[in-house]
Amino acid sequence: MRLVGFGCSFTYGSELVDPDIDPADHWANVRYRESNVWLGRLADKLDALFDNRSEPGNSNYAIQYQFADWFNNYRNPDERVVVCIAWSELQRFSWLSERWSHNNFISNPHLKNEMWKYSNKEWTVNKIDHKYWTDAAKLFVNSVCNLHNIPVLQFNAIGAHTPTQYDNYFLDGLTMESMLKDAQQSDDRLDLFASGGHPNEAGHEYFTIRLHDFAKERII
Q: Which fold does the domain 2-93+131-219 belong to in CATH?
């Protein structure tokens, strides 16, 4: 079995850094990062392989297209897979030229040239009903997977999502971020976040334990 994961930095594993390597050596850190993020930990608990296709800053609009790219070009119909999606912030949007660009990076002061180049696109993005794009992305992924008998395990990583009607939704209407914050507030012995606001190793493990129970009961 293989878990194929899509999402933003909460699935990419931002701020998960191997303490035994140079933090600047990004490529040397890939294995550590992907093994310690919730997707890798869940795969380990399920004795499964995993394919992490997430990107920091990802929008739900981009996740929809990244899923379609995997489905059309990389899916092995003979392999048992579970599509795992941690939906991102509703206000994010993305467009694809030579690569994916995400609107939340445009306001970065270090990217002034990029901000000027895409200012008209940012204006357009801010006029869009963002919830519409998220609802459409969820509908697309779930419909395609249902048609092809592919199990889906999904939840909200961050953002003000409203509850859905999907039975495969973990913590429907809540988020990974809010769950971990609530846990940390209720038990001051817990330290679940890195300095930049992403879950640390303990946060991913705390979340994965509960996600694993849900996956075994509802999905697998």
A: Rossmann fold (3.40.50)
